[in-house]
User: What shape does this take?
Amino acid sequence: MSILISHTVDKFRSEPYDKVFSEYGPVYFGIHDFDDKKNFLDGRYINFLATRPSNINNEFIEYAETYEKNTEELYRTARKAIFDKYCYFLTRINGAYLGGIYDYLYYFRIHVKAAARFLDENQIKFVIMGVPAGGFDNILWHVAKEMGICRIGLFQAHNDRFFWLKDLNDMGTFSTSLPIFQSQNIQVQKKISDPFYMAKYRKPKLKKKSYFLLKDILRPLYYAASLCKMILKHYFNIKIYKPTDWLFSANKSRFLSQKYIQKTSNLLRSTLEKDYISEKNQSIKIILFLKVQPEAKEAFGDLYYDDQLLIIDKLQNISSHNAEIYIKEHPAERINDSMSRANFWNSISKKKNIFILPADKKSSSLLNSFDIVATADGTIGWEAIRNFKPVICFEKPWYLSMPGVFEANKISNLERILKEKWTLEDINKTFTNLTKKMGFGYIIHTEKGYINSSDAITNFEYLTDEQKKKKLLNNDEVVADSFYKIFLNTYLKQKK
Assistant: This one.
């Protein structure tokens, strides 16, 4: 048998994982190497970035197309189960490549064959992976399921602890996660703080803005010249380009048009923004914290509410006619998808009782002015319930089972929500029990991720530089031990 581990985009040491799984190896590792020249498969390392349409080379296509076993049924089930999700993610993370449905159908088939070949020929029996969110990893996860391979999904939301799930749809309830880890006594504080990852966004300095402006002006000229050069070479038969070369070059130029759509969107948005909250009256005030559009890094739901206009429609449907809904954007609005934003603000301009708050306004300064907080699955929901504000969630956050949290599809009006009462002790008890289902260590983004956060796990104190250095030094050993404990309590118990 073999084991596949794909848990971080950062650098890691393979030795601790090889050591703990020595009886059951070899161990293969999924990596995200940003070097475009890297192949898909290099010894025991598979590079997920090499599977993106903008990076795919002939080595990967050859690997998939020369697999001789029948994959028709795998393709059929995958197409039915995850094709929408696959297209969504691939469009979101694939940079300048703006392929259409026929392109994605081609890559979908290639990805299914490559995933089947890798899992089959390397005899993978156990997969442990961060939440799939890039196209090929979604397919690898699904094909592993169809091949009867034991799979464990990972998700981190706290300093030094991570969640693990046998079923990704189980996020928030964790019914498939076993209480196999040492619990931690949680003492939650009634305190409003801005999530650490939101605080890192800053407006670029003037010098940097000038650099980006010059780059935007010169880029169209550069790409146009490159495309003309390709056309001339093709016309004079100097060089024959592959279809993917033409697609990639043309799409770079097409991608630039989004810059102007974004400028139009921002102009429209600025006409809607109002830096005020109306005085207290009989109306119910709801604040909706938007996700970065499009946002689907944690694919726990069915993506239905990733069209955030549907969230607003739902809130209006379950609210009284005089309810006021305020929209607060993510501070990283500059990186939002420009096309979806243009459509979004155009639709918002047609709605009644919808108000837009400044994007740079701190979340911590807003909560006390509202009766209800609405979010897809943002950390702001956790801040809200700690301060006794009820939360409506449209997806599956880690705190879904906490008191004061309501799933949008399970409520028909706001009366029950407003009557709900809970204490910090209620939250402490639920959270403490939850820690039994949390492994130790840092996964996903390590050095620039949750090691910089302060939360209930750290008693709301930041780690010192010395503590960070020590944790980073031993992190692979700690995570490997956690993975092995999960392995013992899932795969091995299942085999026995």
Q: What stands out?
A: Residues 2-160+441-495 form one domain.
